[in-house]
What does this fold into?
Amino acid sequence: MCRFITATLPTDADHAALAAIAQRHGRRLLPISNPSIDRQIGPGLRHYLTTPGHCDCDVPIGRRLRERAKDMDEAIQRLRRKGWSGAKIERALAQQQDKRAQRVVESTEPWLAFIRDMLTQTKNTQMGLLMHHYSGALDADIVLSARESLPLPMLSEELLEGLREDVLYEFRR
It folds into this structure.
């Protein structure tokens, strides 16, 4: 089971120029076919794998929600087994979250630069990102839970760290 970040781009975009930009940023644009995604994004967009290696499990995009959900579930279960009250668990989790916020973690800056360049160094005006945790092949059925259109000025580290799985985020110039 691995997490992958895929992209959507207009079918009429200069894919050679965009692939060169992706490569400069350590990513790639490999066209993939996923019938369930293709139906949901429509005929004007094409779906691409951006992962240059095995998977995107360690990529900082969506980090806040992943860490929070996993850590909180494990911590709550562990503390309940110790007999802690709900209020005491809540205080402990708040302290843990404060400590986590102070740690130095991998930056989303390479992703910010990648997305900005994809939208400013060519005539391309749109790029979508989609995170999904696959338990099988990349052509498995996926149901988008939402589709959000975001102007490029909204792009920030906080935004990328908070991205949710199965939501297509469409950045527009």
